[in-house]
Amino acid sequence: MAAPEERGAGGAAEEAFLTFYSEVKQIEKRDSVLTSKNQIDRLTRPGSSYFNLNPFEVLQMDPEATDEEIKKRFRQVFDFCI
């Protein structure tokens, strides 16, 4: 690998990508030990943010919404994708 001063703009982008990729792999490794229930609880806990990919925030719904309300909202939001 070239020294930082020899890499230029392309090298900086590659370094940023490798840093990002390394962080993703660390998160995957950390989360791989979680059960399905643990994953769902992590994603849907109140106050979770974009980093946790909370589906209730994506649908802009209250976590206490009924299954029927969630299905209806999901269809409203994602119907255009089909």
TrEMBL record:
Source organism's superkingdom? Eukaryota
GO cellular component assignments = nucleus
Identify the InterPro entries for this entry: DNAJC8, J_dom_sf
Family matches, as PANTHER family: DNAJ HOMOLOG SUBFAMILY C MEMBER 8, DNAJ HOMOLOG SUBFAMILY C MEMBER 8/LIPOPOLYSACCHARIDE SPECIFIC RESPONSE-7-RELATED
Q: What is this protein called?
A: DnaJ heat shock protein family (Hsp40) member C8
Query: What is the organism of origin for this protein?
Result: Pavo cristatus
Question: What taxonomic ancestry is recorded?
Answer: Eukaryota, Metazoa, Chordata, Craniata, Vertebrata
